[in-house]
Amino acid sequence: MPEGPEIRRAAERVAAAVEGRVADDVFFAFDRLKPFETVLTGRAVEEVTSRGKGMLTRFEGGLAVYTHNQLYGRWYVMRNGRMPKTGRQLRFAIEAGDRRALLYSASEIEVLDAEAERSHPFLSRLGPDVLSQAPSADDLTQRLADPRFRGRQLGALLLDQGFVAGLGNYLRAEILFEARVHPRRRAADCSGQELRRLAERIIALTRRTYRTRGITLPPSRVAELKAAGVPRSRHRFWVYGRDGSACRLCGDDLAVEAVGGRKCYWCPSCQSKNGGAGRERSDSS
Ligand SMILES: [Zn+2]
Q1: 4-125 has which fold?
Q2: How far is the CA of 269 from the centre of ligand 1 (A)?
Q3: Distance 171 CA to ligand 1 centre (A)
């Protein structure tokens, strides 16, 4: 599933095509949404933004179209009159001037007024979105220590969209690795320095992944690997999907185990279960 940074990029592509323009035509595939085609046609698109892994397209007059791509949804932005070559099903489309934005395959599409947006079961419980709301490291450190979150295993907590919106399976593994924290530890077990480091890595890795279109390794590392002829598929991640391979820092074999219901990857040496390695590292920095 695409994670927050990929959805943010999609939102920006759609925004570049239709934001600030009047929708000349709006299409919905689902019968329950058909009445909104005429309601939204002729209104300006005021904003296209991401909320975690979902997207909001706000129209003049207070209505917003909420979409969630789930596994298969995909946005295309085209010149008007053109259609992408795809076997997918068109679900939602906006035409504005010489551009069109087309959403294929997504099954979760709703039209919300302000009240419905506030009380929406998913949107209303979303945690802060690093890319669209820019929480500070202080905000996230406090959030980690909050009684609602501090007792949960970090590997599972980072997947919870109610904690921070937009993190998914690869980002959580890479964040925990860069913070040197074992996925089974809880915020309640971590030192203040470890919590701070986690908060900083949540922000830094989300932003890096957004800039690099899905590469979490630092650019200097990527450059070294590229120079050595390593293909992109093998220079994206520190630990994600690399179980049984050598840790890029210490050479130990990387581990994998289900945490929070999905495979989580880590280095048993760099991310020790009792926090020793992490604490040494932060004390010396
Ligand atoms: Zn290691």
Answers
A1: N-terminal domain of MutM-like DNA repair proteins (3.20.190)
A2: 5
A3: 17
